[in-house]
Amino acid sequence: MSANVCSDNVAPSSLRIVHCFRSPVGGIFRHVRDLADAQAAAGHMVGIVCDSTTGGALEEALFEDMKGVLALGVHRTPMQRHIGPGDAASAWRTFKIIKELKPDVLHGHGAKGGAYARLFGSLLRVSRSRVARLYSPHGGSLHYDERTATGKLFFALEWTMAYFTDYLLFVSDYERQAYRRKVGEPRVPNTLVYNGLRAAEFEPVVSKADAADLLYIGMMRDLKGPDIFIDAVAQAEIRLGRTINAVMVGDGEDLPRYRSQVLRLGLDDRIQFLEPMPARAAFALAQLVVVPSRAEAMPYIVLETLAAEKPMIATAVGGIPEIFGIGSPALTQPDAGVVGEKMSEALADLDAYRETMPQQADLTAKFGADVMAAQIEKAYFAALAG
Questions:
Q1: pLDDT for 254 beyond 70
Q2: What's the CATH number of domain 200-366, 3.40.630.10, 3.30.470.20, 3.40.50.2000, 3.40.50.300?
């Protein structure tokens, strides 16, 4: 094994770290990019293995930017979202890639990445003395209802996969409690490490002169609530007694359905759809950001919005209340009527609403990328020493 576990007084050896996940979009991809940058800067050799069938021009540009940082490279191969007939071939291709990279640390993100990392890390142990197998759920299978047949299946699999896990990393206390409730008390070392932002992201973003009232930015799927956002805009217009302009930034398989919803409600001249773009570029397009998710773990978009000093409305799901604090007036429920009411209240006096946002000093102390990377590196060495 190339890595050595060192005492607290000695600089740790360089590790060969491979991050495995399925879809290179959204919060997981953002999380991995930040980790990879910090780990490479710390002297580790880092690589990425992920799906080749998802992502677009924005993701391709992000991968291109990372090439000079990732000593172990970017390796993309088709990965199915759900278990199916093609999964065996996909798994075999992924295993061969990971085996060639000879990782000291195999860090799986999300349900599919977590399964691959733990299974393949266990297979690698047949021929190697040690590979640390870490898993970050990022919500993933934990979003399923434990009362359903699908949920019971996934949680039984998670319980079994614990035998092939060295360390669990949770991005929110909500996620950790959901694991305990749905899967069971973790049988391996685990810790809570919040997502973190870079220092430059704590600079304010000023809205353009012709900025819209509202912004939705994220994946176009029901879990993230684009349909709630659209219905809420229609209801907020009635409450305010004026038209509202909104921008929706993102992509996904359900996008055509949301376009149809906008047309059906007669909002097509006031809600504009745009392709994915960097979050800070999108923030300049509107005055108020809305995150209407039905489920989350610890969404980066909430952290990014607040760090950019943009006022926002967010649903009190997952780890979001851990960012705002319980009882924050910015929190609401994933219901179009309730979100629409909150939209109308905020837009009626945006300056006053802005004052209800968390303080920047509190955000930087709790959600810094340097803090996140240091805590995860500590988990890596603990897993290797285990």
A1: yes
A2: 3.40.50.2000
Burial of 260 (0-12, 13-18, 19+ CB in 10 A): exposed
For the four alpha carbons of 237, 243, 248 and 253, in that order, the dihedral sign comes to positive
Predicted TM-score of the model (pTM):
0.82
Summarize pLDDT for 336-377 with one digit per residue, the tens. 999 999 999 999 999 999 999 999 999 998 999 989 999 999
260-272 tens-digit pLDDT: 999 999 999 999 9
**Which token pair is 175?**
């996620």
User: What Å distances lie between residue 313 and 73, 306, 342, CA to CA?
Assistant: 38, 10, 7
- What sign has the CA pseudo-torsion 150, 151, 152, 158? positive
Supply the CATH classification number for the domain 16-196+368-385: 3.40.50.2000
The CA R_g of the chain, rounded to the nearest whole Å, is 21
DSSP string, 270-289: TEEEE----HHHHHTTEEEE
